[in-house]
Amino acid sequence: MSGQKCNYFNCGKSKRNNPDLSFHTFPSNEHTMKTWIIHSGNIALDNLSPKKLRKRYICSDHFDKNMFMNLNQKVRKLIPNATPMKYAMNNSGSSPKYENSETTNFETPVKKMKPVEIQGRILDFDTKSVVHF
I need a surface site. Which of 28, 77, 91, 108 has the fewest CB within 10 A? Predict the structure, then answer.
């Protein structure tokens, strides 16, 4: 368990240093998996195969309390189809904020990324503008 590390953008918390947090593997459902990638703000995860993503984690800090079946127990379990909170940079560009709105902004990546289909829309990360979802 000590190898568990959060893959949420700019988090990196580990089970070893944060034993009170729970760490959750990416879901096997492809649509939900893509949603987790987008909400995490870590678009580099899109280059991983589903098999490799199933070995990655998001810590409980990035889930709303209503996403847990058993919030007050030591081993916390997510509800079916739970998704992490959306990541977005704050106005200073330094620390995360969580959005509840329908629009999420992503910074344009430096390297070429393959397009992703989410909810019938193609998100092309290889653009010069901010992607709005």
Answer: 91
